[in-house]
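User: Fold this; tokens only.

Assistant: Input:
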Amino acid sequence: MFLTTLIKYYALLVSILAISFGHAQDWQLVWSDEFDGNGAINSANWFHQTQLPLGGGWYNGEVQHYTDRIVNSYVSNGTLKIVAKKETYTDQGHTKEYTSARLNSKYAFTYGKVEIRAKLPQGFGTWPAIWMLGKNINEPGAYWETQGYGTTPWPACGEVDIMEHWGSNQNYVQSAIHTPSSYGGTINLGGQYISTASSQFHIYTIDWSAQEMIFSVDGNIHYTYDPANYNSDTWPFDSELYLLLNIAIEPSIASGFTESPMEIDYVRVYEYQDSCADIICDEGQTCDNGNCVDIPIDPTVTFLVDMQYEEVDGTGVYVSGGDSQLAGPSGLLMSDQGNGIWSLTVSISPGTYTYKFRNGFYDYWDSPGWEPDLPAECGFGQWSDRQFTFSNTDLVLGPYYFGSCELSESDNVLGDVNADGIINVIDIVMTVNLILSNDYDVAGDVNEDGQLNVLDIVVLVNIILNS
């Protein structure tokens, strides 16, 4: 229990830290439920939707009652449990043979990123969902309807299914959009198979902007909604939405079904915030993560090449390019870093350059030793040269295998899990994901004990803070 809690809070810390760096630096956590404690759900965050629609049955022929009883929804051991049960239950004058829970969030928002870490129920006929509806839906008994916001019918209010799973198609998770242009059997959908959907936790994510909605599981995107035309029929998504969590029961429910939970570790909502939007820096400075920092006066380019599969000439390995700063045909001598890696760091003027590596020293163009013509994905111009554009920040190129576009794997630095040459919070995020999915990567095993666990996270944090 302690280890689970510690990993969970490190994961939250990592999420908050990660939004301060790189592309993710503009996300800020604005609302969450970590489902700590034991007992009833947090009523400040969630509302039990139990009122039956007109006719006494839920939509799509579903056969369950939704209740506010603790047997159908509760918190324990750091997770929310929504439990679908087989039992005879009478409410609002109707008797049904199954019960479950349907939660509405008391938080609504426009645009942002939602992350839900969940383990799904199983059983033929179960139908769990993590989804969103327009705050303005006029559905009797829905939370925002009870607060006076219900003005718009479905589907004009908009529905966004972040995750749906049917026990009749075990392990297939789907995301879908319902709007006046396509709803019910909507054409706007996509999904993927997750082999451990009901046995392990996975992170279900939507990234919602004014232009598109991107759906993913554990970072693997399976659907993007970006209609060709934006109007009220295709995009009723410039207004607030709220979250729903539930398990429905289909009429086809297996006769042997007794109960199954959807378990949710956390729900987190982030908003996009441009940390540099209102910052004006002095001449010679640029804004980085909300702070003005000096632009390097003498920025450098570092060239790296992997020669482990080559017989290196006695005169060494060179970088050569047509620009005089790269020394023309004679090139610039690189340094042997060991393990087949050769490197060279130089200061050059901003601009676009072509270059190649050469095995051995020669002072004329039509000489041996050059890399062969490179594939189209990294070869440019008549001679299939490598190319890069250099501005006013330091740049690292490679290490590439000699004669190849492929990045070398030999530069395997402990802690650099994503092998980008930098140890930062992105590596912590990836290590946490490896721990939670019980996978192993030697680069993440920074204390070299043969295991990936929270101790490696502690060491990584210390490396970053002291670098």
